Amino acid sequence: MTSDNSTPDWEQYARWDKHHVWHAFTQMRDYNPLIIESANGCILKDIDGNELIDGVSSVWCNVHGHCHPRINAAITTQLNQVAHVTSLGMSTPASIELARRLAEITPSGLEHTFFSGDGASSVEVGLKMAFQYWHQRENPKPQKNTYIALGSAYHGDTLGSVSVGGVARFHEMFEPLLFKVIRVENPSTYRLPEGVTEENLTQYYLEQLEATLAAHHEQVAAMIVEPLVQGAAGLVMQPAGYLRGVRDLTRKYGVLLIADEVAVGFGRTGTMFACDQEEISPDILCLGKGITGGYLAMSATVATTEIWNAFLGAGKKTFYHGHTYAGNPLAAAAALASLNIFEEENTLNNVAKQSQLLSALLADQVAEHPLVGDIRQRGLIAAIELVADKEHKTPLDPSLATGTKVCLAAREKGVWLRPLRDTLVIMPPLSISGEQVTQIVNALEYGLKQL
Fold it and tell me: Fewest CB within a 10 Å sphere: which of 166, 246, 259, 442?
């Protein structure tokens, strides 16, 4: 391959992009390149200089905005010390300090962090930890070799995380490769089961779960759940008290609880962790996305001392699992800076303020549109579900790509959004301003009017 010294133009980059880059969750036949050259705060700038508000935090991970000077400085300082060493029998001050900070801020009892590279890997680690724990704890129960998961769950795209996932359109092709799980109904607050009201919704779902646990707890190693919000399912919101009930029931029946906070952790729902809202502590907590502020690839699986102790001993008690870049000091430095910014900039206060504004604007400008079936929100996570019939909550024909059309129209108004089929997602950086929240909702309103 030959090249000259000239800078490629947009058309050349677009040709290379379409031919050489295989994009995630993207039908490459239909892909239309959007090439981002720089970013600052909540604004993305494409290669032609067009500006777009990052309305979904670069897919749910950016926390304090792009190019934040504190995070940039932390990475630069670390880069001048050491960029990477293995975590296999070795460590760095940055990764040690981050593990200590996570023990301080995560729900009580979570003291021991295993680092990996992405959210799916943190879930994979959690699943393997739970399985191995039951085999080698003081009173082993090796028959505990399966898991309970929610319908329409999403926990990543490695084979273990796919097995506990439940979004068929993503993973049904790989079914022969997956292990079986016990699945319970996803607790939605929008489409209620027949005969169930909002008042007894939580009780209904918890009774279902208890019946499942009563029948299968002797073989269940752990239940895995996305606390409060099921992300890729369409931002399905759980009824109040459900998460608390899950924790109580898993304890009652001797089943570990794995909380997958990859998407909802680090302030996204209005508290530092979603588990905080119902004051529960899981046995294993999976973190990713926002852990570094959305700057560098890193994830963490944080476990209790009871689980940790089961792995202390000679031979096969060791957790034989690892990732080359686990505990990377550049990522750890970014994560530590991000945690400091939460305090310095009162990030959670801004989440509360902008969440209220977003809720009011959506109710005023979007809720009455004939295709808007439901608006649901937790902190700076908002979903607008489009339906064919409001009264009957009838889904739209997915082949019409209605959600995609709305988001493409919103780009004309300077806002970048990516839907979950016909659920419009608003999940901006937590540093978003009131003016930018208003622009996002105005752009969505414009997009809906184009229909």
Answer: 442
